[in-house]
Amino acid sequence: MNHGEEAVSWDEALARVEGDRELLAEMAALFLDSGPGLLAAVREAIDRQDASGLEHAAHDLKSSVGNFGARKAQEAALKLEKMGRGGDLTHAEEAYRSLERSMRQLWPVLEAMQRSEQAS
Amino acid sequence: MKILVADDDRVQTLMLSSRLKEKGFKVTVAYDAIQAWMAAIKTQPDAIILDIQMPGGTGVAVLKQLKASTKTSQIPVVVLSGSIDPKAASMVKDLGADEFLNKPVDMNLLYRTLSLLLGISLESPEPH
């Protein structure tokens, strides 16, 4: 497996599922389905200036991307979670853009991995 | 042996349930607090893996209820959390949780924890 080393740590992701690539592909499929909704919830919380909502939405996204060793996305989501927890959304827009960039890198990597697993 | 996995993160539950089934557990999954409580009563699992931050009543409420009810108080509960609150571990242990593990879950640590709590060896192909 050699897709998007920067967006995902495959070593970490595979270790977590004890080398079960089929399971990892199933997890990717599930996240490709649910992830956009999780990201949208973060966006909506920022739009509403809802600090508590942002904390929870960013936490949910952070947990999900953590399953793939997606460090950049995880760190960006953690930053937003902390902002929500602290109640200061002054820099949330900037942090969201960073999260969105990470997610845009992550989607195609997961899609490619899923296709590769289906083909094998 | 039966195990209940309660977590609203479907990617996480897929991973946990798949690995635990491989280890021989019969796994029930709940995606929110109410489902978790009902499944605990109905299936009487040997252990519960509980995400503390779930919608629909929160995992904290489920943990309190599990430990308060005579029907479930004896079931070991392993709490999972990705919380950034440094007091989260002591808080859930004060509420009766048997163990606290950080997310993302280290499966080897989870196996060791379940082995200790259930008095089994998860190195064997079938716990029971």
Oligomer state of the chains in this structure: heterodimer
Question: CATH topology of chain B, which one?
Answer: Rossmann fold
Compute the number of helices of chain A.
Answer: 5
Helical fraction of chain B equals: 40-55%
Please tell me how large the radius of gyration of chain A is. 15 Å
Task: Give an overview in words.
The complex is a heterodimer of chains A (about 120) and B (about 130). In chain A, about 80% of the residues lie in helices and about 0% in strands. Chain A is mainly alpha-helical. Chain A has one domain (about 10-120): Four Helix Bundle (Hemerythrin (Met), subunit A). The longest helix of chain A has 28 residues, at about 90-120. Chain B has helices at about 10-20, 35-45, 60-70, 90-95, 105-120, and strands at about 1-5, 25-30, 45-50, 75-80, 100. Chain B has a five-stranded parallel β-sheet, with helices on both faces. The longest helix of chain B is centred in the N-terminal third of the chain and has 13 residues, at about 10-20. The interface of A and B includes residues 16, 20 and 67 of A.
Defining traits:
heterodimer, A: 120 residues, Four Helix Bundle (Hemerythrin (Met), subunit A), 5 helices, B: 128 residues, alpha/beta, Rossmann fold, 5-stranded parallel β-sheet
Q: Summary?
A:
With 120 residues, chain A is mainly α.
Any chance you could write out the topology, listing elements then pairs?
The complex is a heterodimer of chains A (120) and B (128).
Chain A: H1 10-16, H2 21-47, H3 51-66, H4 71-86, H5 92-119
Chain B: E1 2-6, H1 10-22, E2 26-30, H2 33-43, E3 47-51, H3 58-68, E4 77-81, H4 88-94, E5 99-102, H5 107-118
Parallel strand pairs in B: 1-2, 1-3, 3-4, 4-5
Helix pairs in contact in B: 2-3
